[in-house]
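To whoever is covering the structure queue this week,

Two jobs came back overnight. Logging them here so there's a record in the thread.

Job A:
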Amino acid sequence: MKILIIDGSRVARTFIKRELSSLPDAQFFEAENGEEGFNQVLKYVPDLITMGLIMKGNDNNSLIMKIRHTPELSHIPVIVITSSTEDEAINHAFDAGAAEIFFKPFPDGKLMNYVKTMFRKEQDLTNINILVADDSSTVRSIILRTLSSVGATTFGCVNGEEAIEILNRQPIDMIISDYIMPKKDGIEVCKYVRTELNRDDIPFILLTAVGERSVVLDALNAGANDYLTKPFSREEIMARIKNHVRMIHFNRRLQLELAERKKRELAMIYELNQARETQKVLLPTKLPEIPGARLAAKYVPMDQIGGDFYNIFPLEDNRFGIMIADVTGHGVPAALISFMVSGIFTNNALTVPSSTKLVMDLTNHYLHGKLRDDKFATMFYAIYDADEQSLLFTNAGHNVAYVFRGETDEHFELDTDGIFLGPFPNEITNYKEKEFQFNPGDRLLLYTDAIMEIADETGEMFGEERLLALVKSNKDTPLNELLDLIYDECLRFSGRDGMADDCTMVALEIL
């Protein structure tokens, strides 16, 4: 067995060589990078390739795809060996055509057992249906007996028309056809398989007593994968057949993997849809009506679900709670944390309806110790008094809020310099609350960091100055349209189709 080891690490190559050294008649070839590796593949046509996932200066997925798209090499199984566990890199390797991925370190003997199992399956012709078309009864009989002796299911016929009839009524995995036959020749059968049946996956081996180059080129152009010149030995045709059987088994495994992956994707989509419906509970189904004020909100998760959330809810004495929060990350992990943070906050806000500081203290107290060290939430919580047109607020590590005063073109930053929720005990966080008095016509804007941090192709962020200028130049634009305008302008600035993070905005206008 010829084994090519492609890896930039000499230590890794030595380990793999030692791991596979007990394979029967093992011959090893080595390469340090993809370019050298492909030259070795062309030179030796190995039975197996092992390859590092990451090697300096090489795109190994391109190398795998190059092997897969070279007909005389496409049957060779490629095993990727890596210490990387990044889902994207692993999926790309499978998509390129890797047969399997081994994660370092793995136990002694694991790779050996996998290779033995893989080649035992690939050389097993059980459950392989092979059609043999040849008008010579001697040749046809020899091939059929040889194939039957190794467990293949065989179908024999004497001309091209009979071959086509069998193809239309039986599932066939491989075709061995004579070139010159009555009624329809082997090239016509091959063209029928490739064009009429649209089956590029069936290996087609052409038998010919004519060794002319033009005949071989015609066969390959018609879609034949291989050819043998008569007379040939039993060993020769079995070697060719086993090469193609490996590819059949590879394709079957690939189809099973694709079906399993599709099944997992459908299950994930279902779970995401369920989670998205659940997350809607965190968001107001309808914004409350506040006397003497208008409200607007916009929520766009980066994924189907996200880590941003907000709430606007009535409190006692004509006051209203206004909250916006952002959990680190996005997608399902962030959404799960947002469920917990929202539940804790809501309970505290309804229990303590008159102090934003105490609500933040309680929320942090219940979150501390329940999140991983790298997970936290930022939050801006305010209580708006509709009678006094005033705002009591506390900021826990969130973006500062802005108040825009249209009549003077001024803006005010609302901040209490609080630290984010979760990682630290209350002795360290020391949350504070402040109060702001509105004038008629003032506009309050709360937002998550996606607005500030979205960047153009040079890496420059949208930033504070652009946001302030945009809002001030559109002071007469209705609130809902203003939030849409901010979102659209961020996308236009970045040249992207969507935000790089969850995006949420809440606005309040004093009438």
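Job B:
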Amino acid sequence: MTVASLSLDAVEYVVVSLETTGLMAGRDRVVELALASVAPGSAPRLEFTSVIDPERVLAGSAVHGLEAADLVGAPSFAALASQLAPALIGRVLVAHNAQHGLRFMFDELGRIGLRRELPHLCSMYLRCMLGGERLSLADACHVERIGLSSERGATGQALAGATLLTRYLERIRKGRMAATFGELVRGQDYVFCRSIANSPIHSGELAEADPQALARPRSRSSIGLAGVGRYQDAVLAALADLDVSESEIDTLGRLRADLALPDEVTQAVHARVFGLMIELVAHDDRLDADERGKLARIHAGLRRLGWAPGE
């Protein structure tokens, strides 16, 4: 049944964090997944974490820090279905910049037979609904004084995202902004709001493809380049509305300088992000004048950050 009429305190949430081979859902695949649960009155708890065989050539190592050797013998997403089910059944999904991250989650679920959108919230836009500006996960946690976990990759991000969600839900509760999911999204036009009309996963929807498959957490030796993922997340957050403001350009410029990323890494991030923006605005296989204008502004913003595709 739809979650629209349910109380925000009547359900459990599962915060989804993942790493992928690239930015194009449907083509790129998940290489690491972590799920952290948030239940009313309880502290966030990590429920699942594993590196995953993407069943394609590995890419994006500079961002997620995983090499091909880290994935030798790793289970596929389908093989882990039976272990994912307990963390997903009956729960509302949450992700930071959900329009980006959950597209990969829904693509992977669709490959194993669950071809529908699940009810979910976007913590990046929950912050906007609470009167804040749109920020990446790392920056939002910094503002909230949430210490990032020592766990690397998706695991640390899931735990940080779960703590961030508890803060936002508490403010919604104290401010009496909404009692139900329907009240929370009423009058809002964020993309995730439409999903509240859907129902969570129910028992039996996820087939037990391989009950013997074992999740395998990321090796501690898988480090990657510190700061690359943070920069990419910040760029994606800034461009989530397919536009970029002067203040966002200034903020990203300072972040790039602070992280001291090599030019070739910055260029790779800009190219990947611009490719995603093209995919998003051209989803109907055509570009109208407004969409071309948005891409032009995004391209100009990336150029002002130091480099844009085609230069």
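Note for Job B: The longest strand covers residues 30-38.

Please reply-all if you pick these up so we don't duplicate work.
Q.
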